[in-house]
Amino acid sequence: MTVTTPIADQSGLDGLRAEIDSIDRQMQELLIRRFEVTREVANLKQNQRSQNNWRPNRQAQLLRGLVTRHRGTCPQTALIRIWQEIMGASLALQGPFSVGVALAESGDLWDLARDHFGNVATMGVVGPAPQVVGAVSEGDISVGVVPLPQDGEDRPWWRLIGVSTPGAGTDVQPVRVVARLPLFGAEGSRATAANDGFALARLTCEPSGDDRCLIAVETNQEISRGGMTALAARLSAPTRVLASTAEGDGRWWLVEIDRFLPADTPSPFATEPQIRHYVHLGCYAAPHLDDATV
Predict the structure, then answer these.
(1) N or C: which end of the chain has fewer CB within 10 A?
(2) How far from chain centre, in Å, is Cα 82?
């Protein structure tokens, strides 16, 4: 018996393809206009003499808005990737912008940075994380991407940031953490906890509406990780101790707080005698990943 294969309605297919072609042309025209507006923004910003036009808080707000409004069958991961490319290209249009990536023993920071800043951004591998901090501090690169810290590192990058360079002037921002990457992630993507990273830049930390703050505190060597965790738990927000390192007769702890703290905020540990020193390392938009362990 011969089985007849149904023939698709050719006129219906042609009509749908014509509609897709029309939508594509409209999307392209809107994209052209978006970049015309971006050029106008760049022209207005020329008078500001900014060395870095990236605004990570605005990027986070825009992407969150996209996700909140999204509906239909387009995968959310595709939506985010499209707009990250658009924003990265727009950023490159506004002036010099470059990304330096640290060498990392685990994970692939190159893919992490490329996914976040897009294919137009100038990128290169700088070297170990401390070298990336130096390149950002000297203005050799706009942004540095470094790996998540580990306990007991000989020269942790987070001990090299957050402090103004002597003689740099009050208008020069110190190197701070301004983003945690990836900002969004999903099952099946390259973004996993194993290759999370931080983005460093000389920018003023601005709130996005849902933020985290990174601080470093020094205690004496007698305080254990559990003791530091208990101290951090007294703050008015959820906290996590990410790493620690011994220095002299003390120990420095890296603490993440689920709240925005301006850089000039007094130490939240001012009444704790166990805390010797406090350094504000930066604030950034809280990541939104399918994996709740972040």
Answers:
(1) N
(2) 17
Cβ atoms of residues 212 and 254 within 8 Å:
no
Encode pLDDT of 267-290 as tens digits.
988 888 889 999 999 999 999 865
Q: Write out the residue range of the structural domain in which residue 263 sits.
A: 51-285
- Tokens for 259? 């709240």
Q: Does residue 84 lie within any of the structural domains? A: yes
How crowded is the C-beta side of 140, counted as CA atoms within 13 Å? 14
Residues 133 and 160 sit within 8 Å (Cβ to Cβ): yes
pLDDT (tens digit, 9 = 90+) per residue, 204-249?
Answer: 999 999 999 999 999 988 889 999 999 998 888 999 999 999 999 9
Q: How many structural domains does the chain have?
A: 1
Neighbours of 120 (CB within 10 A): 15
Among residues 108, 111, 112, 110, the alpha carbon closest in space to that of 126 is found at 110
Asked if the structure places residue 68 within a domain, the reply is: yes
DSSP symbol at 184: B
Q: How far apart are CA 163 and CA 176, in angstroms?
A: 9
CA distances to 39, 164, 174, 202, 233 from 169, in Å: 31, 9, 10, 13, 36
Measured between alpha carbons, how far is 9 from 31 in angstroms, rounded to an integer?
A: 33
